[in-house]
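We store amino acids, tokens; thus:
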Amino acid sequence: MSYVLGIDGGGSKTVCVLMDDLHLVLGRAEAGPSNYQSIGIEATLQSIQSAIKNAVEAAIITNTLKIDAICLGLAGVGRATDIEVVKGLVKELQNNKLLINWALQPANIVICNDALIALVGGIGKPVGIVVAAGTGSIVFGRNHEGHTKRVGGWGYILGDEGSAYKIAIAGMNAALKSYDGREIPTSLIVDLKQHLDLESIEDLIEVVYRQKWGVKQIAALAPVVDFAAASGDIVANMIIDDAVKELVKATSTVIDAIFTTDSVLEVVTTGSVWRGRCKIHERFAASLVKKFPNVNVIFPRYEPAYGAGLLALQTTQN
């Protein structure tokens, strides 16, 4: 029996699953964030170590556990220098007392970005496309030959089209333009005022600028736009349609780069944007399938940490 660890490390939390070679999850645990570029290497190590320790303890295995492989899918890891940093973290993990018998070989250590494990976990295999639209956005694909293509993921200033952040920014912008008389009337003026408990839409200046709102706080307003669109507001629906167009364009770019136009493949959608009331998921799927009839748009079958576990198991079977 082979045992492996799958790690999903992001800016808000770290998830670890302990899996056997039958793909069964024996233990799962969460810990703090593990984006080393934002919280530092030591804090990242502590989060990953805590997640592993708690996942192993959750498995209720009395004997010392032999770990044959590990996959760490971490946010912000993509460059060669990032890989080397995480390799150092794995060495540190093996030096700590975790009631684990580490049997890792270099070939059994997988270090990748979180888009790959979201793809593998979402679909259940390492072939297809993941369209992540949450606070930010990115589209990532991998074909049968192992070739990959990434589109987007450039952050809120340089990119993130179709993300909750860009939808929220567009919503506030549209409300203020309408208030000025530059655009057609929209319920977003009233909706934003009620949501933020403002006396006037002009008070957005106080909220956004003077309170120095960050990306996550602004992105949290995307559901206001979604609700307005679901209620029939024309302007809000235009914003959602623009988001759909951008996400379809990014996905189409990935398909054109590493698949054929008649490829039969699955596209998994992850992130908060897809859970809206305005049927953005259905709009996206309909638009994409119109261009690529053999594409099937799905919600995730498994979580990203499970995808990391599958990638780790793959190294034990080669």
